[in-house]
Amino acid sequence: MKQLVFLLVFISSSIFAQSGTYKVDPEHSFANWKIRHVVSKTSGTIPDMTGDMMINLDDMSQSKINVEMSLLKIDSDHKKRDNHIQEKKFLNTSVFPTITFNSTKIVMQDDTNGVVTGTLAMGGVEKTLDIPFKLLGFGDDPWGGYRVGMEGNIDLKASDFGYSWGLKENSSLGDKIEVNLLVEGIKQ
Hints:
single chain, Lipocalin, 2 helices, 13% helix, 52% strand
């Protein structure tokens, strides 16, 4: 009986330690992307992600995720292309410098896989979408903090957000943008 009580206390304290508010770590969180370019693909990352996550492991439907990504630091490992991507005819970052996502619902399918629903704002357009994600884990970091890691994947249509480059006949860029989100949060 003592062992069962100890196990229940251990599990409860473990869940309590994991639940809480986490600040997105901009040095370890990224939105990696790929898009068709002529007959191949080009890729890059948005390395400037900030935000917060409120995680309730007792009831994940009560959890929230809010992030903002700066398109001013978009990086395709080619500075000239990065400047080109930011121009008015593409992302128009002088008018729309950020992408935001604010969750409205989280549904877990099992202990680690779920779907987060929320509003994505990009290019002056807001869309509600579902992002499948995997809860990668929780743990102590080497700097005395406690972290959570998540990964999500989604395909976006640029035209859904007002970008028409991929709709033109013989366009050098595709309309579909493949996005892989790697988010690491630090418990506050």
